[in-house]
Amino acid sequence: MNGVKYLGEGIVKCVNLSSLSLNLWRNSIGEDGAKYLGEGIAKCVTLTSLDLNLIDNGIGENGAKYLGEGIVTCVSLTSLNLYLSGNSISDIGSKYLGEGIAKCITLTSFNLDLTYKSIGEDGAKYLGEGISKCVTLTSLDLKLHSNSIGDSGVKHLGEGISNCVILTSLNLDLCGNNICDNGAKYLG
Fold this sequence. Notes:
The protein is built from seven helices and six strands, in the order αβαβαβαβαβαβα.
């Protein structure tokens, strides 16, 4: 944990950073570690590219909140890759991420991996709302496998994606989400 604290403190000092890529896959940083990273990222207002691999780190809802709050300040981001699979962020964590994403109005490329963590219908709604604000997206990759988002959740995702009218690349992994005919209709 102290290692991530020091890493976050170091990131804060990189005020002219334009690209940041961190791969901390399976390091058990927890929500406190995510807090330190979020605080560090929040100070990097010149970031144009952010790539965070925090798969299986137990960041939970609060960790997602800290990351969402950090991303909010990165108003120049054009590329955002968040790999958060296996972190139990739930619908509340998705809300914070959606709010952060909504502020990234210059994004052209967005990749989000939240597989296997039951964000549910409400979580999909919050993500859809966030994505709907990213009207400059040309590439969108959502991996939401096994999240129980159902027809209602996919409807909100579809509505959000429909605002991204200049998309040239779209990849959706929605396997194992209890999506029926109506959900497929909404997405179409």
